[in-house]
Amino acid sequence: MQVKSLLAILATVRLAASYGWSVIDINNGEWSETIERDVCIVGGGASGVHAAVSLIDLNKTVVVVERNDYLGGGTHTYVDPETLATVDIGVVVFQPIPVVFEFFNKLKVALLNMSSVEVNKAGQPANLSLPAAMFNTIRQDADFRDGSEVTRSLPLEEAEADAFRRLAEVYSNYSYLLYGYDLPDPVPEDLYMPFGAFLEKYNLTAAFPTIYQISQGMGDLLQVSTIYAIKYFNLDDLRYSSQGYFTQAHGNNSELYTRAGAYIGASNTLLQSTVISANRKNTTSGRLELLVSTRAEGLKLLSCKQILLTIPPTLTNLRGWDLTAEECAVFSQYITANGYWTGLVKNVGLNETVAIFNSAAHTPFNIPVLPALYHLSPVGVIDDVWWIKFAADNPTMSDAQVKSYAERQIETMQRARNATITKPEWLIFESHTPFHLQVAPEVIKNGFFRDLTALQGGLGGKMFYSGAAFHTQYSTLLWRFNHDVVIPKMMAPV
Ligand SMILES: *[C@@H]1O[C@H](CO)[C@@H](O)[C@H](O)[C@H]1NC(C)=O
Ligand SMILES: *[C@@H]1O[C@H](CO)[C@@H](O)[C@H](O)[C@H]1NC(C)=O
Ligand SMILES: *[C@@H]1O[C@H](CO)[C@@H](O)[C@H](O)[C@H]1NC(C)=O
Ligand SMILES: *[C@@H]1O[C@H](CO)[C@@H](O)[C@H](O)[C@H]1NC(C)=O
Ligand SMILES: *[C@@H]1O[C@H](CO)[C@@H](O)[C@H](O)[C@H]1NC(C)=O
Ligand SMILES: *[C@@H]1O[C@H](CO)[C@@H](O)[C@H](O)[C@H]1NC(C)=O
Ligand SMILES: *[C@@H]1O[C@H](CO)[C@@H](O)[C@H](O)[C@H]1NC(C)=O
Ligand SMILES: *[C@@H]1O[C@H](CO)[C@@H](O)[C@H](O)[C@H]1NC(C)=O
Ligand SMILES: *[C@@H]1O[C@H](CO)[C@@H](O)[C@H](O)[C@H]1NC(C)=O
């Protein structure tokens, strides 16, 4: 965000506060409906939907406000209209932890242990009864800027295995990061040093190439503060990778959210809706009020005992909210986020036995130069359809720019491999941007996460927060955070 627009927002927030002015007051009660619920949940992604289901089971009434026309946030499944083959392009895998089995079982969605089945041999056709995510290819490396082949310098296998063993030991000192951001005071220096420096400090650089490959969407992983890297590819990944990850049995993770939507109920779900004004501090009813612009029914007033906010808490997203001084102080610290986009394209015409990874010859660890595609990989279950995962170190590129840049890189690879130059057709394209909101290292050092965590239960036990900014960009861990941390706090007597 530019400094100028930040200042403008701060000024608006102050104005609203000092004059007690809000849309709610001047609109004089003229909205189509007032919806009273125990809990208003803002954001229908992994955190918001899981919380809604959990709260219903605790006999709370809820309403979910979601800006998209579907629930599930970063979970997107492409369904091939001809064969009905499905391809998950957003959230793909889940760790084998109890909250995952509980959530899927409750909604009667079948899971598959990805370690329990045989995948195809590279070069052999995909097994169409397995999720697309399990299609196996040969990895080749090339620099997508010019298409040249790259030989990565990789650690020896034993050195890598040794580094991962020691990584688990070091990470176990930070096991509290599996449950939010409740950090010790003072904050350990390890957590705000650049991740590259942290790996060098503990002689763990042999683990980096694999960590980089898994930590998609983390931008320049060598430079991000270590705390973010530890939370994304985390201690549980190290613990559970040997036990197998899980995915929806037919590679259709969206099914979880379709079922969850039915469980929550259409009358409790406002899709394509956004909060345009909040009055949480000064209502005659004493309840919290959110004025919501809905898809087809104009403005609705939500009146709740508690609010759970799960969207990225940027000042831009919270325009119209009566932010407290504490909220403002925390949310105004975000200086950047990464860019991350996913999709599928058809008609690439390259060899479908091979996944080409973007690597650079002269960068540390051969990491690709962003913004760029991470790789170009065939999905296997639909002919000549390819995953597109595009990353940037910041969120500034528009969706149209990303698409055109991705097409250009595909063309570069086609030329380098003497393939026919085609015009790829986009089957699906989704933005996960802004991905991973970040603050500066010195802000972490000075207690940013203490202040963030202290917001829970604000406004006299009425205001709660979940979602990536309050924990991590990882569905499984967000569900456990809801289950173990946020919902118990919401249920505790004030
Ligand atoms: C609370 O709301 C009332 C009525 O809308 C208004 O007159 C009053 O100034 C508000 N108080 C504060 C502290 O904003
Ligand atoms: C929810 O309500 C049902 C039916 O009244 C009751 O059996 C159950 O114990 C309640 N659950 C909780 C967690 O309060
Ligand atoms: C998943 O399958 C693997 C291989 O069969 C097995 O070792 C592992 O225990 C399974 N995981 C779970 C959580 O059942
Ligand atoms: C495809 O996968 C299914 C499920 O794991 C398995 O039962 C079947 O034997 C596999 N088919 C082939 C041809 O490998
Ligand atoms: C550093 O790690 C490598 C393996 O990653 C190991 O072979 C080497 O002995 C370690 N060096 C020290 C000083 O611990
Ligand atoms: C974990 O922290 C303790 C206390 O700070 C320290 O002595 C120990 O060396 C750390 N362990 C690892 C593996 O870094
Ligand atoms: C995948 O899940 C979606 C959402 O529940 C559903 O509409 C679709 O029919 C499913 N497709 C297949 C092939 O299972
Ligand atoms: C595709 O790539 C594989 C692996 O390099 C190779 O064995 C195969 O011959 C290639 N196929 C074609 C049609 O070039
Ligand atoms: C592409 O064609 C050029 C010129 O015919 C040839 O030199 C080059 O080796 C070919 N590259 C590949 C990857 O086949």
TrEMBL record:
<dbReference type="Pfam" id="PF13450">
    <property type="entry name" value="NAD_binding_8"/>
</dbReference>
<keyword id="KW-0732">Signal</keyword>
<protein>
    <recommendedName>
        <fullName>Amine oxidase domain-containing protein</fullName>
    </recommendedName>
</protein>
<feature type="signal peptide">
    <location>
        <begin position="1"/>
        <end position="18"/>
    </location>
</feature>
<dbReference type="InterPro" id="IPR036188">
    <property type="entry name" value="FAD/NAD-bd_sf"/>
</dbReference>
